[in-house]
Structure formats: C-alpha cells, structure tokens
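hiii, so i know i said id send this last week but things got crazy w the move. better late than never?? heres the sequnce for the chain we talked about at the cafe, plus the structure i predicted for it. fair warning i was half asleep when i ran it
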Amino acid sequence: MPAHLSIVIPVLNAADALPATLDSLLPGVAQGVIREVIVSDGGSTDGSRQLARDAGCTVVTGPAGRGGQLRRGAKAARGEWLLFLHADTHLPLAWVGAVCTHRDAERAAYFRLSFRSGAVMAKVIAAGANLRSRLFGLPYGDQGLLISRTLYNAVGGYPEIALMEDVAMAQALKGRLVALPETVSTDAARYRRGGWVRRPLRNLWTLARYLCGADPTKLARAYHKT
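okay and structure toks below
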C-alpha cells in the first residue's frame, strides 16, 4: 500500500489532543504509506486548524457534527484507502504492518481498543467494547476504521447525522468488518468526568434508543446535555 492511504481526523477544539495523535502517524510517514492527512474541522476556536496546517495536514471546514465532518473529510481524500481516526486516538507503533497486511477491499477493519488510564474500570470498559465489536460487529469510532474507497462508496459513506454515525456505518458494513491485530489507545477523560459506571450505562441506553429508531438529532441533544 505505497502512499495510497488517506488519514481522516474530525476535530472540534482538539488542539491539546491532536499533536500526539499526529505523532502516532509518523511510522506511516517514514514508511511511505500515507498519501495525506485530512483534518476535518467543525468550527474550532482554539487553534486546531492552524496547528493542523503547520503539521502539513490538509484542512477542510464545515458545520460541527462528526458524521458530516467525516463525510467531508472522505470527500476531500484522494487515497485508495481511508483510515478514519478520532482526534484523541493514538495508533500503536506497529500500526503500519497491521494496516498494510489488510488488503481485502471488500471488508473494512478496526483496531482493538484500550484507554490511557490505569483504572481497573478502564480495562473493563475496553474489554466490553472489544467484545461488542467481535460479537455484534459494532466497533465505535474511537477504534478507527480502515476501509477501501471502493467499499466506502458502495455503502454510501458516513451519514451526516448528529450522533451514532459510527454505529450507522457499522450497520452498513454488517458482515464485512474484521479486527486488526493491534490496539489503539484513546483518552479516558470523558469517563473520569462522566463516571466509570454512569457513562457506559448512558452510552448503552443511547445505543439502544438509536437501534430502536430514535432520532439521532434528539439523541445528540440529550447526550451532550448530560
């Protein structure tokens, strides 16, 4: 996969998190597999856009909303393969090998999840996320998504919805998702703020409501209010 990979990162006031995430991409730069890094900004006011430009990224802008930001980033991308990452998700050192060995254009792939925290509950929640991904084919966006341009276009891309865009994509890819043999790490701050038990329960309730047909816009209002 020589220089055929476009990295797409949606951001919103992510200036503190973005540098370390970009640093984790460096093995791909060194090995010549990354064609471009696209930062899709949703209206940051903290210097995220300038930071991304200074790092050599292509910046696209538009309204806030991860689904729309991912969609705009993918539209701007020129690579034959796309790797979608959250702004606080760090790739492991060996990520290039894992990505390059996945050559199945008819199936997308995701990483196993871990949290940058020593808390016991961090390990429990990560184990639950990895089990959910394996048993139900529902990886979340903080696990990354590697997908060929051909397959991305075939399933219609990320939907421009207010919440659950990663679940919608996983549903569109049902039966065509595999786990990569590496683990990404993501920030645990939202769990420390929201509670190691309360937040997962709220996430599960939100997922259940979405799967039962609730409006993503209404879910997003309730989700961001609490």
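btw The radius of gyration is 16 Å. thought thatd interest u
miss u guys!!
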